[in-house]
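Sequence, please.
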C-alpha cells in the first residue's frame, strides 16, 4: 500500500466518541495486560557481554525495531535512526570501533542508534501531511508550523542567543520554555527520545528471549565515518544483541537504595 493510501486508510479508520456533545478521538486502553509478564521482561534484562552464536531470526529483529520506533518522542518528531550493521566488513570495523568489547565481538547483531537534529522541519511538515484524522486541529497546525523555529539554533547559536534572551525576559512574568536553544541543547533533545527508543529495543529483545548490551564505549569518530553520518546526526549508543551465553552476565545486578533516587515532595 502506498504511503498516501495508508494515510487515507488510517484517517478513515479513526474511532470517535461523543464527550460533552463533542466528537472526540477514542482509543481505549487494552485490559488484561499481565503485569507479571512485563515485570519478568524488565527484571530479567541484564547487560549481556557474551553471546552464543545463535542468530536472531529476521522476524524477531524486525519486530524489536518496530517496537523501538513506538517509543515516546518529543513533539512526536522521532529524531532517531537505527543502523543494523550487516555487512561483515562493516561489522568487523564496528567491533573494532567498540574497542573490541566482548559484547560487540560476540553479538549476533550490532545496531547503532543515531540521534538526528536535522529532520525537524521535514518531519513537522510530514506530521501535518499525514495527520491521522480527517482535519488537523488549528492548534496542532500552529504548533508544527512553529516548531522548526523552536529547534533551530541558527549559525553559531545566533538564533539560540536571541531566543534565550527573549524567553528569559518573558520568563520573569510567566512560565516559558527554557530550551532547547543551543545546538548542544538540541542534540540533548534528540538524544533523550533516541535513548527511550533504545530502551524499547532492548526490552523487546528480552521479551523475544534474546539479550542485549547497550554500549557507549566506542570511538565516535570511527563510527561516524563507518556510517557516513552528517554533523547533525550523532551516534548515541551501539546495541549488541544475541542469545545470552551461560556465562554472559558477569555479576549480579547492583542497584542502590531506593531512597537515594525516589523522592516524594
Ligand atoms: C548508555 C549506556 C552505555 C553503556 N555502555 C556500555 C559499554 O560500553 N560496555 C559495557 O559493557 N556496558 C555498557 N553499558 C551497560 C552498563 O554497564 C550496565 O547497564 C550497568 O552496569 C547496569 O547493569 P545491568 O544493565 O545489567 O542492569 C552501558 C549502559 C548504558 C545505559
Amino acid at each position: 500500500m502506498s504511503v498516501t493510501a495508508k494515510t487515507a486508510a488510517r484517517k478513515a479508520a479513526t474511532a470517535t466518541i461523543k464527550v460533552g456533545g463533542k466528537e472526540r478521538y477514542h482509543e481505549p486502553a487494552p485490559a488484561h495486560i499481565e503485569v507479571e509478564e512485563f515485570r519478568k521482561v524488565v527484571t530479567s534484562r541484564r547487560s549481556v557481554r557474551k553471546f552464543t552464536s545463535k542468530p536472531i531470526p529476521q522476524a524477531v529483529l524486525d519486530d524489536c525495531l518496530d517496537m523501538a520506533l513506538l517509543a515516546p518522542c518529543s513533539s512526536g518528531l522521532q529524531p532517531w535512526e537505527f543502523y543494523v550493521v550487516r555487512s561483515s566488513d562493516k561489522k568487523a570495523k564496528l567491533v573494532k570501533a567498540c574497542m573490541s568489547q566482548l559484547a560487540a565481538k560476540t553479538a549476533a547483531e550490532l545496531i547503532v542508534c543515531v540521534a538526528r537534529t536535522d529532520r525537524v522541519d521535514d518531519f513537522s511538515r510530514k506530521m501535518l501531511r499525514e495527520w491521522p484524522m480527517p482535519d488537523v486541529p488549528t492548534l496542532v497546525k500552529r504548533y508544527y508550523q512553529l516548531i522548526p523555529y523552536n529547534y533551530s539554533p541558527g549559525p553559531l547559536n545566533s538564533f539560540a542567543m536571541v531566543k534565550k534572551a527573549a524567553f528569559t525576559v518573558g520568563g520573569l512574568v510567566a512560565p516559558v520554555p527554557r530550551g532547547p536553544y543551543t545546538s548542544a541543547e538540541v542534540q540533548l533533545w534528540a538524544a533523550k527520545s533516541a535513548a527511550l527508543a533504545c530502551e524499547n529495543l532492548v526490552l523487546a529483545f528480552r521479551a523475544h528471549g534474546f539479550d542485549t548490551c547497550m554500549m557507549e564505549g566506542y570511538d565516535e569518530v570511527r563510527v561516524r565515518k563507518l556510517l557516513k553520518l552528517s554533523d547533525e546526526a550523532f551516534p548515541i549508543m551501539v546495541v549488541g544483541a544475541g542469545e545470552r551465553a551461560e556465562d554472559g552476565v558477569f555479576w549480579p545486578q547492583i542497584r542502590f537504595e531506593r531512597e537515594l533516587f525516589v523522592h516524594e515532595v
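The chain has a mean pLDDT of 94.
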